[in-house]
Design goal:
Layout (H helix, E strand, L loop, with lengths): L2 H11 L6 H15 L6 E3 L2 H11 L5 H8 L7 H11 L24 H12 E3 L17 E5 L6 H15 L4 E5 L3 H17 L3 H4 E4 L5 E6 L2 E7 L14 E5 L6 H9 L8 E6 L8 H13 L8 E5 L27 H10 L5 H9 L14 H4 L18 E7 L7 E9 L4 E10 L7 H5 L4 H6 L3 E3 L7 H16 L2 E7 L5 H9 L18 E3 L4 H16 L3 E2 L4 H8 L1 E5 L5 E5 L9 H15 L1 H4 L7 H12 L6
Length: 637
C-alpha cells in the first residue's frame, strides 16, 4: 500500500479528522481512479514516489527516522544521521536537505498530506484515447492545483522542493515563483537556494546568478533549466514559457498575473501551475474565484478536468475552539506545526480581539476580511435569487431608488439602484462601477489584487473615459439605459455633492427634479437629493445597511465588485455613537465607492421608507436586530 492509498484509508478510518471538501476530493474524486474504476483516468504511483524518494530516500516517515537514530551518538540530529550512514552504507537519505536551525542538513520528510498531494498531482493520468488530444495520452491529468492549508503546515517548503525537482526532471524547464510582492516570491526562491546549498550533491550541479534577475539554473544534456523569482508587475511577464509556475500565497494576487502565467504555458505539453495558499482577507479576488471553481468541481457541477482542488478548512459547523477540529485545516499539525502555537494564538485573543479574525482566516481557512473591517465575510456572503440580468424581469416597472458616488481620475465612480421587494421583505441592489482607461495601468489597480479586466469583460465595471471619468456623460445615460431595459421609475437619487454639479444638471435636463429647484418646504418632492457625508447624514443608513446585510435582506446579486468593496470598509464612531464609513487602513489601495453609493441610496430610501418600501423597515432597527438574532444560527462563524 503506497502513501496515497494509506491516506485514503485514514480518511475512511478517521472521517472526523478531515473536512468535507477533502473527503469529497479523495473519496469521491480520487479513490475510484486509484482503484482502477474510472474509464478516463488511471493511477501511476511511480512519478510521485520518485519525488518522495528524492526528498526523503529510504525513510518512511519521521517515526522511522527517529527509530533508526535512537541509539546513535551525537549532539545534533545530523551527527546521529552521519553515524548511522557510516555503518549502513546502503541507506539512502534523499537528496533534499533542510537548512534551518538544528535540522540543517537533515532530509526533508514529507507529511502524509504532502505525499498524497504529490502522488495525485503527478500520478493521475489520462488513459489512451480518453484525453482531449492524442498528445495527452498517458500524461498527467492535473495541470493546475489549488491547495489551501493553514499557515505553518510546510507549504512553502513543499514549493521549494518541487521547484528544485522540476528542473532536474525536465530538460529546458522554466520554473517561476510569484506572489503578491517580490519579497514573498524571493523568500521562496532564497529558501530553495538554501536547500540546494545544504545538499552536497545538489550544490555541485546547480548554479545561481542575481542579475538581471534572481535565477538558479542547471545545465543538463537536454538543455538549460531555470528557476526565477518574479515580481508582481504583470506587464513584464509577457513572453514567459513556464513548464512549472508556483503562486505563493495567492489569496491577494492580481488576476492578471495568474492569467499571464496560465496562458504562457500553452506551448508546453504537460505544464503545472500550482497555487498553495492560506485563506485571506481580500474578498471578490482571485482566491474567491478559485474557491468557487473548486466547489463546483467537488459538487460535480462541472469545471476543468485538469484542475485539482484540495481545500483543508474547518467545516461550517465546527467550533474553532475545539482542538480536535484543528487538524481539518492543519494536516501537518503535530509535525511541522505545533498544537501549542494555536493554543497560544487563541489565548492572545483575550487581550487582542482582532487576532481572532486572523486566526480563523490563517489557521482555520475560514473566509475573512481585514481586522479593521466592519463587516465579516459571513455578513457579505448574502447569496442571491437574482444572479443575472435576465432574473430581474420580475422587477420591471417597479419604483426604485438610486445613489451615486463620483470620482475624477484614479478612483472609481459607482451608481447603485435599490429595488424594494415588498413581498420578500428585502432590498435588491444593482451596482455598476466605472474606471478610466488610464486607471487600469496604474500601480493602484495592480496592487489592489482584484481582476479589474475580468470584471470589465463581465460588464460589472465599465470604462468611463481615457484619462478622466466623464461622469456627466455616462451616469445619466446609465439611468436612461436602466429605464429602457426594466422601466424602473427612479423616485429618489441620493448623491455625494463632491464634483456632482454637472451630473445633476444633466439629470435636470432629463426632467428630474433637484432640491436646488425647490423651496425649503418643497424639497421633499425632489428626486435628486444631496446626502450629507458626515455622521449626521450617514449614521442611520449605516445601521440599516449593517442590519440588512446580516439579516440577508440586502441582496447585491452576488456581485464580486460590491463584495470586495464592502469588505474594504470600516466604520468610524464619534463620541455620541454616530457613524460614518471609511476605507480600512492597510498597504493595499482598497476601493469602497460601491458601498458608498449603496449608502447614499439607502439614506434617501430610509427617509421615504413608508412610501417607497412599505413593510421592509417595519418595526425599525429594533425589529431588524431581532431578525438578525434569529438568523445567527452558528456563533462559530
Amino acid at each position: 500500500m503506497d502513501p496515497l492509498e494509506e491516506y485514503i484509508g485514514d480518511i475512511r478510518k478517521h472521517p472526523d479528522s478531515y473536512c468535507d471538501k477533502i473527503k469529497r476530493a479523495y473519496i469521491g474524486m480520487i479513490k475510484p481512479i486509484v482503484e482502477g474504476k474510472d474509464q478516463d483516468f488511471y493511477y501511476d504511483p511511480n512519478p510521485g514516489m520518485k519525488f518522495i524518494r528524492f526528498c526523503q530516500g529510504d525513510i518512511k516517515d519521521q517515526a522511522d527516522l527517529n527509530a533508526r537514530l535512537s541509539d546513535c551518538p551525537g549532539s545534533r540530529p545530523l551527527d546521529k544521521l552521519n553515524f548511522y550512514q557510516m555503518y549502513n552504507q546502503g541507506f539512502f537519505a534523499g537528496r533534499l536537505k533542510l537548512d534551518k536551525d538544528q535540522w540543517a542538513g537533515m532530509p526533508m520528510i514529507l507529511a502524509p498530506y504532502q505525499k498524497a498531494y504529490v502522488l495525485v498531482k503527478y500520478g493521475i493520468k489520462w488513459r489512451k484515447g480518453r484525453g482531449p488530444s492524442p498528445e495527452k495520452d498517458n500524461k498527467r491529468r492535473f495541470e493546475e492545483t489549488f491547495l489551501v492549508v493553514g499557515r505553518k503546515n510546510g507549504k512553502t517548503t513543499l514549493e521549494q522542493a518541487e521547484a528544485i525537482y522540476g528542473r532536474l526532471m525536465e530538460p529546458g524547464a522554466e520554473v517561476y515563483v510569484t506572489a503578491t510582492t517580490f519579497q514573498i516570491a524571493r523568500r521562496t526562491w532564497d529558501g530553495a537556494l538554501s536547500m540546494i546549498q545544504a545538499s552536497p550533491i545538489l550544490s555541485k550541479v546547480f548554479k545561481k546568478r542575481l542579475n538581471p534577475r534572481p535565477e538558479i539554473y542547471y545545465q543538463a544534456k537536454g538543455g538549460l533549466s531555470h528557476f526565477y523569482a518574479l515580481s508582481s508587475a504583470h506587464k513584464r511577464m509577457d513572453g514567459l514559457n513556464p513548464s512549472r509556475a508556483i503562486i505563493d500565497e495567492g489569496h491577494a494576487l492580481p488576476r492578471e498575473i495568474y492569467d499571464v502565467l496560465k496562458q504562457g504555458r500553452s506551448a508546453r505539453v504537460s505544464p503545472i501551475l500550482s497555487m498553495i495558499t492560506t485563506s485571506g482577507f481580500l474578498r471578490g479576488g482571485l482566491f474567491d474565484q478559485m474557491y468557487k471553481a473548486s466547489e463546483r468541481i467537488l459538487n460535480n457541477e462541472g469545471g476543468a478536468q485538469n484542475f485539482l482542488p484540495l481545500i483543508y478548512e474547518l467545516d461550517k459547523d465546527d467550533d474553532p475552539r475545539e482542538e480536535s477540529k484543528w487538524v481539518k485545516a492543519n494536516p501537518a499539525l503535530g509535525i511541522t506545526k505545533k498544537i501549542q502555537f494555536i493554543r497560544d494564538e487563541i489565548t492572545q485573543t483575550a487581550v487582542d480581539p482582532n487576532a481572532w479574525n486572523t486566526i480563523k482566516t490563517k489557521d482555520f481557512n475560514r473566509l475573512g476580511v481585514d481586522n479593521s473591517a466592519w463587516l465579516t465575510a459571513k455578513d457579505i456572503d448574502v447569496g442571491t435569487d437574482y444572479p443575472n440580468e435576465e432574473s430581474l424581469t420580475k422587477t420591471n416597472y417597479l419604483s426604485v431608488v438610486g445613489g451615486f458616488d463620483l470620482a475624477v481620475k484614479h478612483d472609481t465612480t459607482a451608481f447603485a439602484t435599490l429595488i424594494p421587494m415588498a413581498e420578500e421583505k428585502k432590498i435588491l441592489c444593482k451596482v455598476r462601477i466605472w474606471v478610466s482607461q488610464d486607471f487600469l495601468e496604474t500601480e493602484t489597480a495592480s496592487r489592489s489584487g482584484v481582476p479589474w479586466r475580468s470584471w470589465i469583460e463581465r460588464g460589472l465595471v465599465r470604462i468611463g473615459g481615457q484619462h478622466f471619468l466623464n461622469n456627466a456623460d455616462f451616469i445619466p445615460d446609465y439611468v436612461r439605459e436602466e429605464f429602457k431595459k426594466h422601466r424602473w421609475s427612479y423616485q429618489k437619487i441620493g448623491y455625494d455633492a463632491w464634483h456632482a454639479d454637472e451630473v445633476c444638471k444633466k439629470f435636470v435636463d432629463m426632467g428630474f427634479l433637484s432640491e436646488n429647484q425647490l423651496s425649503n418646504s418643497q424639497k421633499e418632492l425632489a428626486c435628486l437629493t444631496r446626502v450629507e457625508q458626515g455622521y449626521k447624514g450617514l449614521t442611520e443608513a449605516c445601521s440599516w445597511r449593517y442590519g440588512l446585510l446580516k439579516a440577508k435582506r440586502l441582496d447585491f446579486m452576488d456581485n464580486p465588485v460590491v463584495k470586495w468593496m464592502l469588505s474594504n470598509r470600516k466604520i468610524i464612531n464619534d463620541h455620541n455613537g454616530n457613524r460614518r464609513p471609511d476605507r480600512i487602513d492597510s498597504g493595499i489601495p482598497y476601493k469602497i465607492d460601491g458601498g458608498r453609493a449603496i449608502l447614499d441610496a439607502l439614506a434617501v430610501l430610509v427617509k421615504n421608507k413608508d412610501r417607497l418600501a412599505p413593510g421592509i423597515f417595519e418595526g425599525g432597527l429594533g425589529a431588524l436586530a431581532k431578525d438578525v438574532e434569529s438568523r445567527e444560527g452558528n456563533i462559530n462563524e
